[in-house]
Protein backbone atom coordinates (compact mmCIF):
# COMPACT_ATOMS: atom_id res chain seq x y z
CA UNK A 1 0.00 0.00 0.00
CA UNK A 2 1.36 3.42 -1.02
CA UNK A 3 0.80 6.28 1.42
CA UNK A 4 1.06 9.86 0.19
CA UNK A 5 3.20 12.31 2.20
CA UNK A 6 0.05 14.04 3.47
CA UNK A 7 -1.47 10.76 4.68
CA UNK A 8 1.80 9.78 6.35
CA UNK A 9 1.93 13.10 8.20
CA UNK A 10 -1.69 12.69 9.35
CA UNK A 11 -0.93 9.15 10.55
CA UNK A 12 2.08 10.42 12.52
CA UNK A 13 0.02 13.21 14.10
CA UNK A 14 -2.71 10.75 15.05
CA UNK A 15 -0.17 8.42 16.66
CA UNK A 16 1.41 11.31 18.58
CA UNK A 17 -2.00 12.44 19.85
CA UNK A 18 -2.91 8.89 20.89
CA UNK A 19 0.38 8.43 22.76
CA UNK A 20 -0.05 11.74 24.59
CA UNK A 21 -3.53 10.78 25.81
CA UNK A 22 -5.37 13.32 23.67
CA UNK A 23 -8.90 12.55 22.64
CA UNK A 24 -12.53 13.46 22.85
CA UNK A 25 -15.62 13.76 20.72
CA UNK A 26 -16.35 16.20 17.90
CA UNK A 27 -20.07 16.46 17.15
CA UNK A 28 -20.96 17.83 13.71
CA UNK A 29 -24.46 19.23 13.24
CA UNK A 30 -25.02 19.92 9.57
CA UNK A 31 -27.75 20.59 7.06
CA UNK A 32 -26.11 20.61 3.62
CA UNK A 33 -29.31 21.68 1.87
CA UNK A 34 -29.70 24.64 4.25
CA UNK A 35 -26.01 25.58 4.19
CA UNK A 36 -25.69 25.04 7.95
CA UNK A 37 -22.71 23.63 9.88
CA UNK A 38 -22.03 23.67 13.62
CA UNK A 39 -19.61 21.70 15.78
CA UNK A 40 -19.40 20.88 19.46
CA UNK A 41 -16.42 19.45 21.36
CA UNK A 42 -17.05 17.19 24.36
CA UNK A 43 -15.16 14.81 26.64
CA UNK A 44 -11.76 16.33 25.80
CA UNK A 45 -8.67 14.76 27.33
CA UNK A 46 -5.42 16.76 27.35
CA UNK A 47 -6.83 19.25 24.83
CA UNK A 48 -7.94 22.87 25.15
CA UNK A 49 -11.44 23.54 23.77
CA UNK A 50 -10.77 27.27 23.14
CA UNK A 51 -7.55 26.49 21.30
CA UNK A 52 -9.15 23.75 19.18
CA UNK A 53 -12.15 25.91 18.30
CA UNK A 54 -9.78 28.68 17.23
CA UNK A 55 -7.82 26.26 15.04
CA UNK A 56 -11.01 24.88 13.45
CA UNK A 57 -12.28 28.42 12.79
CA UNK A 58 -8.99 29.33 11.15
CA UNK A 59 -9.00 26.20 8.96
CA UNK A 60 -12.62 26.78 7.88
CA UNK A 61 -11.83 30.43 7.11
CA UNK A 62 -8.88 29.39 4.95
CA UNK A 63 -10.96 26.75 3.15
CA UNK A 64 -13.69 29.33 2.49
CA UNK A 65 -11.15 31.79 1.12
CA UNK A 66 -9.92 29.10 -1.32
CA UNK A 67 -13.36 29.08 -2.94
CA UNK A 68 -13.65 32.88 -2.83
CA UNK A 69 -16.11 33.10 0.06
CA UNK A 70 -16.14 36.15 2.32
CA UNK A 71 -15.85 35.05 5.97
CA UNK A 72 -17.85 36.86 8.63
CA UNK A 73 -17.07 35.48 12.06
CA UNK A 74 -19.26 35.87 15.10
CA UNK A 75 -17.65 35.03 18.45
CA UNK A 76 -20.36 34.71 21.08
CA UNK A 77 -17.83 34.66 23.91
CA UNK A 78 -16.98 38.31 23.17
CA UNK A 79 -19.61 40.95 23.92
CA UNK A 80 -20.48 43.23 21.03
Keywords:
alpha+beta; 2 domains
Explain how this protein is built:
The chain is of the alpha+beta class and 80 residues long. It has two domains: 1-45, no CATH class; 48-80. Helix content is 41%, strand content 24%. It contains two helices and two strands, in the order αββα. It has a two-stranded antiparallel sheet. The mean pLDDT is 89.
Topology:
Layout: H1 5-19, E1 23-31, E2 36-45, H2 49-66
Antiparallel strand pairs: 1-2
Instruction: Give the strand line-up of the largest sheet.
Output: 1-2
String of helices and strands? HEEH
β-strand percent reads 15-25%
What structural class should be given to the helix and strand makeup?
Answer: alpha+beta
Distance between the termini: 52 Å
Identify the overall geometry. globular
- What is the count of DSSP helices, taking H or I runs of 4+ residues? 2
Radius of gyration computed on alpha carbons:
16 Å
User: How many structural units, i.e. domains?
Assistant: 2
Q: What portion of residues is helical?
A: 40-55%
What is the total tally of β strands? Answer: 2
Overall pLDDT score = 89
Q: What ranges have pLDDT less than 50 throughout 5 or more consecutive residues?
A: none
Largest sheet: 2 strands, antiparallel
Amino acid sequence: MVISPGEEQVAQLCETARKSGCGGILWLDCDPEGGFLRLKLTDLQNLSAPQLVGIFAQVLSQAAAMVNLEVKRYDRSKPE
